[in-house]
């Protein structure tokens, strides 16, 4: 159906044309003349029938001379019309229609007016041939009207025309009409099979193709091509290949089998199931077959499309562009047309002709909006032309409905575009969309970033080559890590780990990846792993050439020093910082860390010097100034800290958030700790609280999410610093308790929001203070416990450790320790322990030392009363004396309790030992009784066995002496041996040993033997019933006795011959 020739005629054929009754011309159909003029004259002179004209035209068509066939058909019409034989013209019109359809197959369907390499502007377009074909069809139908002509030829021709024009429903009806007349028509069967294949009804199409092959093995086009296509669609690839190979063997010059086998070989060359050498062989074979197919039919779009891809990969862009344009102009289907546009665009893109490439990508996308390659190519061109919003829109259109496509390639590209900030676009929203897209990519490609990628026992489909390229793209994983940085450390770690794996697979691990992974481990508290990664990263960086490796080494060495510092290895940390400062003396961060280490060792002067050196080199560094502010505050230098902060705000940045918050804290701290009770001092404290609130408010105005400023204002509210400070700077109001509770609740609302932004122990502590002020003690305890458990390793961290220079805190600690000891000595001895008493005494002694130091403090202004400190010290001496007395009482009490406990424990043990001894005796007695009983039973069984043997011996002797008896009558049902004696039969002789009978048993026959096997057991137990086997010697004529007694396990038959001794006994 796709060819340009009719079936080839068999060899050695001739056609006789009768000129006159005496003259006949024989034409060799296998050697037709290429000049048909003489043949036309002969046909005209002979006034040949129409079938002769069509026969010769068909033979020329079969041999590839389509022009001569058309000339003969046209000559037939002219001659027959001149002779008046128009009624016989329909076959000629149908032949001309088929010739036009055949010409249409070799004509371009679309002519590119701006084609660069394959211009077809001089060619006749396919639709024009179809128009001429339909005209001939209509003329044939008109000529056939009213004539008794078979409609098969008309139906077939029209069906073929409809099939070529993709009028599938009409073509199917036409083919069915032909098959209704002639069910074995091969052309109609082939046409119907093609339609069913197009409709994806592969099984039905396969049956029809096989039927055609059975009816006509040499049919053309070869039904084996269709059979192979159906097998391929049904996933029977081996059978499909075999069908095509057979087709190529039968028809070596046909292009269809060559092309299909070439494509199959190219697919095999991409399969990982073959070895490298096998893939190379498949590739070479596929290239050869595709080239051969294109040479056989250079106007076939599928062959041109396949060959274009091969040339495009080889970089032969001019030839590839010519083939791509050939594909576009001769394409039969939308899919092939789209492929032609895509390959044209790819060639033009490779030659930097971006505008023309964009045009072809757009045409491909308009034809198939869901085509991934078209959208990706168009987006790439738009990026090249700096049209980023257009590229994002293109990819969004592909990934969203109604053409929703879950392409991992498009998702990854769109995610990368959205991940990079663009002016005028909400970066936070774009970042969120980029994460969603990368999550989709991770799920589709089962990347390690997806937490559900590893499923036990779950079989996954193998990734495509493009999917593997994305999965192995280093930059994709780095970008994923960057998107989740600061929000999901687990995903960041997985992405960086995969990126490091890819980097290591390339042979040169990137030190930055190792360093970043080490930083994640460091932040996660895995110091050993972090240190190992930092050391590895330094090793890799040292192997790099140029300044790039030196820059990496500097940052990595600083991180290594930090992890040494966190591990408590101060020596190694100091050496690392010294080495870093030796290389880069102006490395401010290293100096600050050294200063921090000196400060932790109470070497404030050395730390101060280092900070000053850093300030001299980078005085405008706000981070450095913030650290110096913190250092001054921690060392109880509030006034220098205040001056330094105000200078920072005035000279460097009046909008610096850290300086504003620090200024607010300093103002509040100084106002709260002031003990000046004069009116001027009270006014100064009020102004301090007010300025503190102003600083916090300004910080919140600049950054509404500043948690430190919000917490500062909440503290101001809770302590009523802008009011009377709970009576500290003014008289108490009548509604002071209600006011205190109201302020605490207002502050709690703020602390609850701060907790969401700043997860710190101070927030929970402040909430505990507010709950305490609101008399909600349970929730206050809960907040304090949360702070202790979550942030201080479940320990009660004294405020002194946080502010070691705050003397008010020191005074409070001494008071609490002294009060604890005082309360403990009033507790009854049964509710306390020696250990608790000893701890209370130690704390009381510590409180004495603190009170002594506080009372001896020479500072002019202190946040406590020195006289009260001295009085507390004297009072503490008495508390310690009472503690010693209570300690002795407690020890005596615990010793007595311990003695009572030991006595009770010993008594319980003695009772347990006594019970164990009784149990052992009982078990031993049972064991002896069981052994004795077992021995008695054994002896009884042995005695029973001896008696049984004696009884059997006596029975045998008695039988030998007994004379032969007449045959016995059949025993009555349930009758015993004794009952038979009572009915007139001779009674058996009773054996001795009646002592074995049971008491009260009237019958002695079988019961005697039952008692023999009782084993002498207790009479209450049932005896094992086992009947004695009795042997009876009978003659052959004796009738068989049927016993109604229970069946015996073993029966004995009589002897075949009776010995002489038996006869004598008779």
Automatic annotation (TrEMBL):
- What's the protein called, per UniProt? Protein required for normal CLN1 and CLN2 G1 cyclin expression
Q: Where is the composition biased (Basic and acidic residues)?
A: 894-961
Spans of the TPR repeats are 186-219, 554-587, 761-794
Location of region: Disordered: 894-1066
User: Residue ranges under compositional bias (Basic residues)?
Assistant: 988-997, 1023-1032
Pfam families xrefs = TPR_16, TPR_6, TPR_7
> Which residue windows are coiled coil?
none
**Gene3D superfamilies reported in the protein's UniProt record:** Tetratricopeptide repeat domain
Q: Does the keyword Repeat apply?
A: yes
Mention one GO molecular function.
RNA polymerase II complex binding
Q: Which GO terms describe its biological process?
A: regulation of DNA-templated transcription; transcription elongation by RNA polymerase II
Q: Which domain of life is it from?
A: Eukaryota
PROSITE patterns (UniProt xref): TPR
The record's listing under InterPro entries reads: Ctr9, TPR-like_helical_dom_sf, TPR_rpt
| Gene Ontology cellular-component terms listed | Cdc73/Paf1 complex
Q: Does this entry carry the keyword Hydrolase? A: no
What does UniProt list as this organism's lineage? Answer: Eukaryota, Fungi, Dikarya, Basidiomycota, Agaricomycotina
- The organism is Steccherinum ochraceum
Give the keywords, sorted. Answer: Repeat, TPR repeat
